[in-house]
Amino acid sequence: MKLVTFCSFKGGAGKTTALMGLCSALVKEGRRVALFEADENRPLSRWQDNAVKRDAWDPGCSIFVADELPLLEAAYAEAEEDGFDYVLVDTEGGSSELNNTIIASSNLLIVPTMLTPLDVDEALATYRYIIELLMGEDLVIPTAILRQRVPVGRLTISQRSVSDMLHALPLTDSPLHERDAFASMKDRGMLHLNVGKVSADPGMRLALRNLETAMEELLLLGDFVTETLEA
């Protein structure tokens, strides 16, 4: 069982959205995925509630509350016993003993950011914190920056500047672009199931293409994760 953690000190960086998307990609490929909800605001539980109402929740995924250390330990033991392939962790904001434990126990760490100076500064602070923590514990865990909400068209001068700066750090193979399909996941459920539902309606061809393009990007992220962990 591999543990993949999404980390960000800043709210609104797209951490939970990226986790939801990766979950859809992995489950679509036949992997069983456990989601550890370490954020006390419980965004993943709300996502599941919305998805179940829309018949867009895949039984290959289960959510475990893990917003306290004893709950985290119990969730890990249960998920491992149940034979899940992956655990995706949605951390709480900032630094804490809980976050430190999750980071040190992970097999892969992903730091999402948007291409704004403020977001990149926060991502760099998160990245620096992770590296210092790992060095202090004498651990080597792959860590990558995930560029989120990247414009589909031409970048502004500011966006190009921060994007060039990020290339000095380990990055996921490809970014996630600014797409309605990503923004609507929290309300509509798992993306791969929505693709299947829309594909059955001939009148939704345009919407289908947008969903399929978003799904292709998530599958690339899934490939990056699996290849990194296998390496």
Automatic annotation (TrEMBL):
Transmembrane segments: none
Pfam family, one: VirC1
Classification via InterPro entries: DNA_Partitioning_ATPase, P-loop_NTPase, VirC1
Designated name of the protein: Conjugal transfer ATPase VirC1
